[in-house]
Amino acid sequence: APRRRQESSNVAATDNYEWTTYYEYKSAQRSCQRRELYVSFKDLGWEDWIIAPDGYSAFYCYGECAFPLNARMNASNHAIVQTLVNLMKPDSVPKPCCVPTKLSAIQVLYYDKNSNVILKKYRNMIVKACGCH
Amino acid sequence: GFYSDNGVDQTIMYRSMPKQERNEMQQEILSLLGLHHRPNPASHAANLTSYSAPRYMIDLYETLTGDEEDVNLETVKRRYLPQPRERGELAQDYTFLTSSYFVQDADMIMSFVNQVKHEYPLRHDRDRIFRFDMSEVPLGETVLGAELRIYKNSSLDGHIENNITVNVYQLVPGIDPEDRQLVLADSYTVSHDHAGWLTFNVTQATQDWTSDAFANYGFYIQAICGHKSLEMHEASLVTRYGPEGKLPFMVAFFAAAAQSQSHVRRKR
Fold this sequence. Notes:
The complex is a heterodimer of chains A (133) and B (268).
Chain A (H helix, E strand, L loop, with lengths): L21 H9 L2 E3 L2 E3 L9 E3 L2 E3 L2 E3 L14 H12 L9 E14 L5 E16 L1
Chain B lengths: L1 E4 L5 E5 L3 H14 L19 H14 L7 H8 L15 H4 L2 H4 L2 E6 L9 H6 E2 L11 E11 L11 E10 L6 E11 L5 E6 L1 H9 L7 E7 L2 E3 L18 E7 L13
Antiparallel strand pairs in B: 1-2, 3-11, 4-9, 5-8, 5-11, 6-7, 6-9, 9-10
């Protein structure tokens, strides 16, 4: 469930940027960016066995990697070339994908059926940044 | 359900998932967590947080996640790794716990509570034998380290004025199927008036038992003062009965095998 939070204003890659035209603003809204996705263990009704956390901000990548790619989209060199080729041959070469470029781990503390407590680290669970690749 | 922002600072649900889809989704997330089914802990599990093992784990979790970007390793080591034993207190020179960074390296840290209840007819044995069920440890996990923690109160027995040596033995099968042999796992000598957690290195036993659960016969604890063997209560060791926050427990640190992620994915 995406949840509106105070800190979510600085989440998207498109924030804190001076837009000169309405067109540029709307284009940025569609461009590749990180959006908030909150996975709530409480909403799943798992609070009886997951001790902590209550949930976590997983985030997801959303948007289009369309010409022109620029610094805000954290694009790889190959993605820039692929965008240009896509412009020339849209039917045969797809646009680059908007994907996670940096991931981090979460740690979950939970009971097993014997009431033993387990602290487990899950790598690559939180999207820290998105980009065109 | 699925939610979206309605544009006026509210999040509204726009689709509720049917029960079957919800179950499938939960199964997917459980699978991602490396679990084949939802654990069903004892109904009183939520009230267990005052017990020593859950308390230790919650404390450890809070320390490790206090500042996720930059965990202060020195703080973790100071709080959770046994401090170097003073010269003369060592019966065996185990140094691995104090020098390792396995708290940071571990993908999974698991606590175990003592399962010995009525399987030994003599109370004498029930107090001296500790057994920890490791059957839930996923296959492919590598044991980085393991420790047995036993709380010792300050001795009030006027007859005991010397140091007390606590030996922890791993019980292994003997020649006869009914026999058990004792293999010394770790040993610790403390002053009779010492109060606090005694931490024993039981890594080898944990490695043996995670690879072969049927070989798990538990630990045998022996307390000696001079040449005299002491009962657990005489040595002021908290065993099966005692304050919730001082009950013995085991902690093991595991690393996921390099090739097989931290869990086995179910086939869909």
